[in-house]
Amino acid sequence: MTGPGDGSRAGGRAATHALRDLARAATVRIHRAGAGYARQEFLGSGFFIAPNWVLTCAHVIRGGEGGEVTVVCPAGRLGGPYAVPGRVAATLPERAAHAGPDDWPDPDLALVRLREPVEHQCLYVSERPVPHYAEGRVYYAGWGTMGGRPQPIDGFLPVHGTVGGWSAGARLRLGGDELPRGVSGAPVIDPVRGEVVGVLRTGAEQGADGTAIGIERLRTLPVAAGAPPYDPHRDDPNRSGPDPDDLYQTVCHAHDRYHRDRQLPGASEWPTWTDVQAELGARPGRVLSPHERVDLLGRLADLSPPNSTRGLLDILQSLPDFRLPTLSPAPRGWRDGLGALYENVRHGGTLPLVVEYAMRVMTAERRATPHTLDAEQALWEWIMRAAAPLGSGPRGELARRRARHLDDRLRGGEPGAGYRTGGPAGEPGRFATRLSVQLQIDHLAWDPEHCDWSIATVRPDGEVTRLDEGQGAGLADLAARLAGPLAEAFRRCDEPGRPVALYAALPQHLLDLPVDEWRLRPGADPLGGERPVLVRCADRDQLPGEDDGHGAGFPYDEDFARRERWRRLHDPHGRGGARAEILDSGDSGHRPVPPLSVLRSLPAAVVPVLCREDDRYDEEDGSALSRIIRAGYGVVLWRRRRRPSDVPCGEFHRGARTTVDEADGAAELPALMHGLRERMGRGPTESSWARGVALLYDDPDQPLPGTDDLLEAP
Q1: Which helix (H) or strand (E) holds 200?
Q2: Would you call 512 exposed, middle or buried from its count of C-beta atoms within 10 A (0-12, 13-18, 19+)?
Q3: SS3 of residue 343 by DSSP
Q4: Which of 33, 170, 269, 374 falls 20 to 30 Å from 107 in CA-CA distance?
Q5: What's the gap between Cα 76 and its chain centre?
Q6: In angstroms, rounded to a whole number, what is the distance separating the alpha carbons of residues 275 and 291?
Q7: CA distance 227 to 645
Q8: Residue-by-residue DSSP string for 485-529
Q9: Spatial distance between the Cα atoms of 182 and 29, rounded to a whole number of angstroms
Q10: Cis geometry, peptide bond prior to residue 107 (ω within 30 degrees of 0)
Q11: What is the value of pTM for the model shown?
């Protein structure tokens, strides 16, 4: 469906019938694995998204034993329906233990790969970001159980709004007739643009109103477990294209090549999706015809994908006169970046933006191979044709940039000089500043077992971009609840070989929350092994305690003292260094943490360390950590109370002192702690002393965003 001001016109009845024929020809039904599919249990619907790739709902293939299913393809030129074995390649979320569709966690998507190639049609999948619709209708085609047998079913459904508001992961709420069992997994199609925008999910096994899971949720597919991030320099020098471990890029590139190749002379004797889209009259971004779009996407698919989501966002944010909205899931491939441009439609259309985007994609950093140079040349030819209406001046500037890029290639210089990132378009040489991800937990005083949370990205200049939030989350399942939102935040910020830091801003009584031990998915490394995980105090201004050493005549400026201590501890010239001071333990055992006045008087180079050697002293030093923070310390090491008991105090003391005292300043401690946690994940090592250890790293010059800042959309 299409929103107001799209510039599209509805096609005739013949185009609508052709669209329905194409959809039905690419829709499959899924059965349990085994010979004789007619006797095997019918599980649900699915559709071909790329050659030999089927998309469906995760709850549909839950009955596939050992990840195996049977895919029944529609009748083709070879005769009636035929069955092909398929292997479940991925589910979202991974390995969910739920048994039914009503409580299956979002996004409830699965990819199935056929075990043998077959001839079939593929649907066209929208590249637009997060389509939200409040009115109109969509078309679906699938299979449903009627009269005890699976039967083909299709039709139009009205859109009544969304489930989940406007937040990430919202689903379209569909009305109309009660949907039969088995139709889950069917494609949901915008009948005006002629493209898949979602996957149908019924409300109950026995039928009810349905919802549509946005097709953009596929962007959250993880890279294969244990596989490194995409690295264009690691593979065969003549290789280009997506990383085989990255299913999202693999499937999307295959999808876009398929639809491009279908337009080649003699490739299809029947109308294609692109032909039907042209008859429907939609023009993506008010500037590209469907044929121009599919040609561009096919050429983009011949290039290796972006090195990272962060790199793609940098390109989009560097485009002149374009403000990238906060999209979730964020764009991940070149096709997603193109779709994001459509949201900036103005009276003159988006032609200059599309041309400039294609130019920056062409000059992006990648390994120069014969295949790459051919793919870049093909994209350059498209750019020159598309830029014809822009005039000789812009075309000449594009040609000069192309020449500089080729010269860089021939000289063996750093590729990617053709575009700038991170600053205004007129400031060459400015690159994106380092981001971090911040998780803020707000405890509910009236409900100790629950909390509110928010996730944001933070630039070093303090600019905050809110990504997600939630209310009333249980502390017991907080790690599982935040796994998806955190994974999305990291994907937006990580660069190859450079995972961003996570700052957990926690209230003082939750400072022991083991965020660094959380896992984003089963089998993944703990967060602390994947990236630096640092703690901040979210309620420093509410810490308990009295000024015990200063009278009215001796005012104490806490903010100034805190900043001065941080500055001297991070002296870029290395004067003074850092020194660990174990405050609650010594040769004779436990000792009380000094009072506030003594803590304030300790040298600026001191990094307080809490051993917490025995929980018997819980009452005595229960406020010790809060007292240390209130004394102005921004860097603190401590062992959580619920720690493994196999690390002796002496080993912890030696490890903490060695790490802090031999560090090249306090600024090195986040990376050192990350390294220790990473090595611990490989098995027992000399790093085991750091198990259960938290690091407070709370820069006073980077104040925590206020609640309004986090909840306010940018």
Answers
A1: strand 195-202
A2: middle
A3: helix
A4: 33
A5: 38
A6: 8
A7: 33
A8: HHHHHHHHH-BTTBPPPEEEEE-GGGTT--GGG--SSTTPPPHHH
A9: 8
A10: yes
A11: 0.85
Chain centre distance of CA 676: 26
Show the tokens assigned to 485.
């939102």
Tokens of 344: 């900036």
Asked whether the beta carbons of 505 and 441 are under 8 A apart, the reply is yes
Mean pLDDT of 608-635: 77
Look up residue 232 and give its two tokens: 């264009």
CB 558 within 8 A of CB 545: no
Q: Tell me which amino acid residue 493 is.
A: C
Distance CA 184, CA 207 (A): 10
Q: Are strands 450-458 and 436-443 parallel, antiparallel or unpaired?
A: antiparallel
With 90 as the cut, is the pLDDT of residue 311 above it? yes
- pLDDT for 14: 87
- pLDDT value of residue 146: 84
Instruction: Give Cα separations from 90 to 47, 388, 491, 669 (angstroms).
Output: 15, 43, 18, 37
Q: Read off the tokens for 405.
A: 């890029």
What residues contact 260, with CB distance under 8 A and at least 6 apart?
294, 295, 297, 298, 299, 301
Instruction: Record the tokens describing residue 56, joined without a space.
Output: 């469906």
Pairing of strands 464-474, 606-610: unpaired
> What's the number of CA atoms in the CB half-sphere (13 Å) around residue 416?
15
Looking only at the bridges linking them, the beta strands covering 68-73 and 82-92 are antiparallel
Ramachandran quadrant class, 9 (left: phi over 0; alpha: psi -120 to 50; beta: rest)? beta
Q: How far apart are CA 305 and CA 242, in angstroms?
A: 6
Q: What percentage of the chain carries pLDDT values higher than 70?
A: 79
pLDDT at 234 exceeding the cut of 70:
no
The two structure tokens encoding residue 153:
């079913």
Rounded CA-CA distance 714/705 in Å is 13
SS3 of 54-65: the string is EEECCCHHHHCH
Tokens 């040349």 map to which residue? 377
Q: What is the DSSP letter of 169?
A: T
The values of phi and psi at residue 458, to 5°, are: -130, 130
Rounded to an integer, what distance in angstroms lies between the CA atom of residue 652 and that of residue 654? 6
CA distances to 204, 516, 533 from 474, rounded to whole Å, are: 26, 18, 21
**Cβ neighbours of residue 125 closer than 8 Å, sequence gap 6 or more:** 49, 195, 196, 215, 252, 255
Question: Rounded distance, CA 286 to CA 538, Å?
Answer: 47
- Please name the residues in contact with 336: beta carbons below 8 A apart, sequence gap of 6 or more: 127, 129, 216, 219, 312
Half-sphere exposure of 356 (CA within 13 A, CB side): 19
Q: Are 241 and 302 in contact (CB under 8 A)?
A: yes
Contact 181, 210 (CB under 8 A): no
Average pLDDT in the chain: 82
Distance (Å, rounded) from C-alpha 713 to C-alpha 95? 33
Tokens of 507: 């209230």
- Residues 227, 472: Cα–Cα separation, whole Å: 35
CA dihedral 701, 702, 706, 708 (to 10 degrees): 120
Question: What is the C-alpha separation between 52 and 26, in angstroms, rounded?
Answer: 11
pLDDT tens figures, 44-72: 999 999 999 999 999 998 756 668 999 99
As given in the structure block, the two tokens for residue 156 are: 């139009």
